[in-house]
Design a protein that fits this description.
The structure holds 2 protein chains of 2 kinds. Chain A has 20 helices and 16 strands. By secondary structure, chain A is an alpha+beta fold. Chain A has a domain of about 100 residues: nitrate reductase domain fold, CATH 1.10.3650. In chain A, the strands form 7 sheets. Chain A has a 4-stranded mixed β-sheet with strand order 13-12-1-14, with helices on both faces. Chain A has a two-stranded antiparallel sheet with strand order 2-7. Chain A has a two-stranded antiparallel sheet with strand order 3-4. Chain A starts with a strand and ends in a 22-residue tail after the last helix. Chain B is an all-alpha fold. Chain B has one domain: Fumarate Reductase Cytochrome B subunit. The chains are: A alpha+beta, B mainly alpha. Chains A and B meet through strand 8 and helix 20 of A and helix 2, helix 5 and strand 1 of B. Strand 8 of chain A pairs parallel with strand 1 of chain B, so a sheet runs across the interface. Bound molecules: protoporphyrin IX containing FE and iron/sulfur cluster (SF4) (2 copies). The site of one iron/sulfur cluster has 14 residues of chain A, from helix 6.
């Protein structure tokens, strides 16, 4: 047993309103620079849709993640023996066209335009070339199903659906969508780290945050191809790769990352997960059908004495263990079985989990008046008739397996119905309680889930462990040495080349 | 006098600068070490340019290094005409690959709008010098046969004399001018290494072969 601590995340998709506040918060803090201008370390996608970069889930094309080959866990992209073949040109790396060409507007034209009959306009110009650009795509070009015949129809997760189901999904009367905010998953078995020939990408032992050492990165760009979530970005100006750093300077000082802090829908939770690093390889070798369970088995119970003993042996402090016991992430993922990792079949074991979004509440209408529901089934359509086919969600969150997704959805629907019986009173309480039982949920658990979902405070959403940087700094340097100086760390202009 | 300057002074200056500046740059400005890949901005022309260039030049370069370290082996191999032709034809075709590659790279640098943005004057200097290096090499190989043999008898002893600090330029001063410029631009390439993106091949990540797949760094004492 080799217990490690990971700062982990849950995004509650049922609460996401698709406002992109998270993306903008991140952009303003980290990626508002030349070469990084096209990067959205946090982006929000409309699903079904092709996402950013376009069709990132298509691993036939991009070769991201891990596969089991000859009984061994291997990168889909390359192997040690063959990696030099691809170094001069990466065959499966997306280019700027798969993301979008960043642009701005020539605002000064509004002020300096000559006197004329028409109003002056600010024309769009490329942030790369500085020339006029005919905008053809953007990071959320298919927002709210815009251009769905082109984008939503080509969502990779629709693979398992029949043609009829696909048509239904996109026909106007039964249209359905939800938002998928994405950041780097700070995986337990990161493909980006394993693929980097320079060894520039590393996982921090203390909190599991995955970072790119800008001094070591040589621009070989294997990470961009190998990350199945396309969350490592190539800075075209500096010639170095960059990625989400989970706002580690904020996390180290007990603050939630910028995207978490600013989230309008309060969909984001952060907490500690303990996991057993010794089990990762065996878990990665499991078949698709067993992956969700195998991933949950990796996560260790912070109340188990053997786990605690191993954690202490690895130098995990009491405060971190305390944070692990209060972790909202542990509750959502392990205790309640509500949160699921995106695409577990990529076998990187993400530390970000999603609570799937429910379909819309249904009503029957008579003479233009919405009727109160008379049975439990009338509030939400039964899962098999849900507008968003289970097979679709199973491809996204269950490695093709419907069972874990159904379990989570059923539980959430049962809790909503039960709460409705309590507060609105138009549902029969015995039926609601039977529904809870059928969904493997006690009233106590339902109440806890309801509270953490709807009434959660900042402190309940973000249980951030102390980083004990004071100990780390002493190892690196004598703190007094820098007294009165400007600080230490990487302080160099991000200039291209020599 | 001129010969001493060009074939004794210049190579020493180039080599010394290459070593010293590369090390200084690596320690003081490690951030500047990068292949400066532009594939993100343009991928199709790069596929042809970069693949042909690198495969071609790496074989040619290995050939030169082999002849430098084991000249006798080359001479022994070349003792049979058939083997000589085989070696020369292989070398020449690799050089042609590199030539096509570097021409493609240069065209790409001038035609693609986005690539132009990340093209520095030194990039162009480097590509021009490399173009000259490869084409002069091809010209010499075709006109002054058989290069693989006289490299071993003339060039290798001259280069070794430089290494041993008892320079003997007379090994190559009688050679035709074209050959001599090939030497000179070769030294120029060495001189350019530390100042351009060429540093990238000093840091080819061969340690990937033996490192463990996952890299975990602990900040606290007592852990790796
Ligand atoms: C095994 C050794 C080498 C490796 C792994 C390597 C790798 C690379 C890579 C990844 C690039 C960036 C390509 C891109 O834009 O994506 C590059 C560019 C380049 N390399 Fe190499 N290289 C090697 C050896 C060499 C050598 C020996 C030379 C010349 C003597 C060379 C000359 C160049 C030049 C001129 C470019 C710039 C091409 C351009 O974009 O115009 N490389 N190399
Ligand atoms: S999601 Fe993040 S940690 Fe996981 S492989 Fe991609 S970049 Fe690496
Ligand atoms: S800020 Fe929150 S609610 Fe808004 S899009 Fe981002 S994740 Fe969704």
């Amino acid at each position: 047993m080799d217990i490690r601590s990971q700062v982990a995340m849950v995004f509650h998709l049922d609460k996401c309103i698709g406002c992109h506040t998270c993306s903008v918060a991140c952009k303003n803090v980290w990626t508002d620079r030349k070469g990084a201008d096209y990067m959205w370390w946090n982006n929000v996608e409309t699903k079904p849709g092709t996402g950013y970069p376009t069709q990132w889930e298509n691993q036939q094309e991009y070769k991201g993640g891990w596969v089991v080959k000859d009984g061994k866990l291997q990168l889909r992209l390359t192997s040690k023996g063959k990696f030099l073949q691809k170094i001069f040109h990466q065959p499966s790396m997306p280019t700027m066209d798969e993301y979008y060409e960043p642009w701005t507007y020539r605002y000064e034209d509004l002020f300096t335009g000559p006197e004329q009959d028409d109003q002056p306009t600010a024309i769009p110009i490329s942030k790369v070339t500085g020339e006029y650009i005919d905008i053809e795509s953007g990071p959320n070009w298919d927002d709210d199903l815009g251009g769905s015949t082109l984008y939503a129809r080509n969502d990779v997760n629709l693979e398992a659906l029949t043609e009829e189901q696909r048509l239904q999904l996109l026909s106007i009367e039964t249209l359905v969508m939800f938002y998928l905010p994405r950041i780097c998953n700070h995986c337990a078995n990161p493909a980006c780290v394993a693929a980097c020939p320079s060894g520039a990408i590393y996982k921090r032992g203390e909190d599991g945050i995955v970072l790119v050492n800008q001094n070591v990165c040589k621009g070989w760009r294997y990470c961009v191809s190998a990350c199945p979530y396309k969350k490592v970005f190539y800075n075209w100006s500096t010639g170095k790769s960059e990625k989400c750093l989970l706002c580690y300077p904020r996390v180290e000082t007990g603050q939630a990352p910028a995207c978490f802090h600013s989230c309008v829908g309060r969909i984001r939770y952060m907490g500690v997960l303990l996991y057993d690093a010794d089990k990762i390889e065996a878990a990665g070798l499991k078949s698709d059908a067993e992956l969700v369970t195998a991933h949950r088995d990796l996560l260790a119970d912070p109340n188990n004495p053997t786990v605690v003993a191993s954690a202490i042996k690895n130098g995990i402090s009491d405060q971190v263990l305390k944070a692990a016991r209060n972790s909202p992430v542990y509750q959502f993922v392990k205790e309640w079985g509500l949160a699921l990792a995106p695409h577990p079949e990529y076998r990187t074991f993400p530390s970000l989990f999603y609570v799937p979004a429910l379909g819309p509440v249904t009503y029957s209408v008579e003479d233009g008046v919405a009727l109160n529901p008379t049975s439990v089934d009338e509030i939400f359509a039964p899962l098999d008739q849900a507008r968003l086919p289970m097979a679709y969600l199973a491809n996204l969150f269950g490695a093709g397996q419907e069972a874990p997704v159904r379990y989570a959805m059923k539980k959430m629907m049962a809790i909503r119905t039960w709460k409705r019986a309590q507060t609105v009173g138009d549902v029969d309480m015995t039926l609601a309680l039977a529904g809870l039982r059928a969904a493997d949920c006690t009233p106590e658990q339902a109440e806890a889930i309801y509270r953490l979902t709807s009434l959660c405070t900042f402190e309940q959403r973000f249980v951030i462990p102390p980083s004990h940087r004071e100990q780390a700094v002493e190892v690196l340097t004598n703190p007094l040495e820098r007294k009165g100086a400007a600080g230490f760390g990487f302080r160099e202009e991000p200039q291209r080349g020599f | 006098m001129l010969n001493n300057f060009l074939f004794v002074g210049f190579p020493y200056v180039a080599l010394a600068l290459a070593i010293v500046v590369s090390i200084l740059r690596f320690t003081w400005r490690p951030f500047s070490y990068s292949s400066l890949s532009s594939q993100f901005l343009e991928t199709e022309a790069l596929f042809w340019g970069s693949s042909l260039w690198h495969w071609g030049i790496l074989w040619v370069l290995s050939g030169h290094l082999f002849a430098f370290f084991l000249p006798e082996a080359i001479l022994a191999w070349n003792a049979r005409p058939l083997r000589l032709y085989l070696l020369e034809i292989t070398g020449l075709s690799m050089a042609l690959l590199a030539l096509v590659g570097v021409v493609a790279l240069i065209i790409r640098r001038f035609t693609d709008k986005r690539v132009k943005v990340v093209t520095s004057p030194l990039d162009l200097v480097l590509l021009t010098v490399l173009l000259y290096q490869v084409s002069s090499g091809i010209d010499v190989a075709i006109r002054y046969r058989w290069g693989s043999s006289w490299f071993s008898t003339n060039a290798a002893p001259y280069l070794w004399s430089l290494v041993k600090c008892s320079p003997r330029p007379e090994f190559i001063t009688p050679l035709p001018w074209m050959v001599k410029t090939h030497f000179l631009s070769g030294f120029l390439v060495i001189l350019l290494i530390p100042f351009t993106r060429l540093v990238h091949f000093l840091v080819v990540p061969i340690h990937y072969f033996w490192r463990r797949p996952q890299v975990v760094i602990w900040n606290r004492r007592g852990r790796r």
